[in-house]
């Protein structure tokens, strides 16, 4: 049972959480931190109903370690909500937040990619007999379609249209649904897997369904990715890789292929942006800076403002 907020900010906290829920935003992280804020105010600022600089700073300074930045982010967004509904509130200045630059993802060599998928095909049989079929398909599908890890994990059987050769991605990041056209060979792979999985679990909901009847977890996907990476003989000399890098490499290789074909990236990139479910074209153009010399020759890397700084609050 969730604890009821009791400080002078209780009504506003509840209203903000309801507002985020209506906007389709996750509230669990905010509820946890605002519950802490509510307890703090109840103890140290009883009766206070105005979010002043003193209150905001006191709670942020009470944090341990790096969680102070997270608290400042919560306070900033809480204050922005309060002003939005007509209340006065101290908004923590943006200058208080460190700028977070996007780390370059791990770019696979052709050999590493080949080694990885060969390893998935040799995944050892376990007590879960469907697993040796699941591993090769789930990672190939993620790479072939540039899917986010959570998107490929949470795919349902109903999302696949084998006749139209499309996959429907429901409730992707930024609440953007999209329908993806899939190549014939990838769709045939999925169709064969569906027939096999149906023999083991005829009533399954998720396309890749765990023995518990749920979608596989993120830790499961990550663990098996690293297992196949090691089985393939790929080392860590150039750094470590994660399942999300399959999506990054998909985007990078699509762009490189377009460059080799002489296509105009400023015309083609918006299509890639829509396919991958990016919130804006800028997110797609970030891959330009990850490309070798043959891609940077396009001149797009010289465009001012094409890569914005990523603020902490935008990554939450």
Can you tell me about this structure?
With 316 residues, the chain is mostly helical. The chain has three domains: 10-96; 110-231, Intergrase catalytic core (hpI Integrase, Chain A); 244-307. 50% of the residues lie in helices and 3% in strands. The chain is built from 13 helices and three strands; from the N terminus they run αααααααβββαααααα. The protein has helices at residues 10-22, 28-44, 53-61, 67-84, 110-121, 131-145, 149-153, 184-200, 218-231, 244-260, 265-276, 281-285, 293-296, and strands at residues 160-161, 166-169, 178-181. The protein has a three-stranded antiparallel sheet, with no helix packed on it. α5 (110-121) packs antiparallel against α6 and α6 (131-145) packs antiparallel against α8 (184-200). The protein starts with 9 loop residues before the first helix and ends in a 20-residue tail after the last helix.
* CATH architectural type of the largest domain: Orthogonal Bundle
Kindly state the number of beta strands: 3
Q: Whole-Å distance between the termini?
A: 25 Å
- Helical content stands at 40-55%
Note the topology.
Layout: H1 10-22, H2 28-44, H3 53-61, H4 67-84, H5 110-121, H6 131-145, H7 149-153, E1 160-161, E2 166-169, E3 178-181, H8 184-200, H9 218-231, H10 244-260, H11 265-276, H12 281-285, H13 293-296
Antiparallel strand pairs: 1-2, 2-3
Helix pairs in contact: 3-4, 5-6, 5-9, 6-8, 6-10, 10-11
